[in-house]
Amino acid sequence: MKKINTNEDLDLALQNELSVILSKTKDCSVCSAIKEKLILIKNNYPKVNFFELYLDDLPLFQGQFLVFSVPTVLIMNYNKELLRQSRFIQMRNITNFLDSFNS
Which of 26, 78, 82 is closest to 52 using CA atoms? Predict the structure, then answer.
C-alpha cells in the first residue's frame, strides 16, 4: 500500500480510475488488521490503487471526506466516492464491489 503523507499525495491518489483509501490513526490496532486484509485483497486487483493515510497527518482529509471514525475505507473513482465503510469493515463487500467494477 502506498502512503499518503501530504495533500499533494492525496490529490495524486484521487486522480486514479479506482483507488482504495484506508484512513487510520497511529494507535488503532483494528486499523492494522484491516490493512493486512487489504494487502491480501490487493494482490487480486492489480489495476486498483491501494493507499493508506493517518488522519493525524492530514487533518483536512477528515473534514473534506467526513471521516469521523477509524478505520474508514473509501473507494474512489476520480475524486468521486463510490463506496464507504467505517468501523466494521466487511471485506466481502469490498471485494464484491471491486469485482463488479472490474467486470
Answer: 26
* Three-state DSSP state, 14: coil
Q: Locate the domains of the chain by residue range.
A: 2-102
Question: Mind listing the pLDDT tens digit for each residue in 6-46?
Answer: 999 999 999 999 999 999 999 999 999 999 999 999 999 99
Task: Note if the pTM is more than 0.90.
Answer: yes
What single string gives the DSSP state of each residue in 33-68?
HHHHHHHHHHTT-TTSEEEEEETTT-HHHHHHTT--
CATH number among 3.30.70.270, 3.40.30.10, 3.80.30.20, 3.40.50.150, domain 2-102? 3.40.30.10
The C-alpha atoms of residue 76 and residue 54 are separated, in whole angstroms, by: 17
Nearest C-alpha neighbor of 57 from the set 93, 6, 1: 6
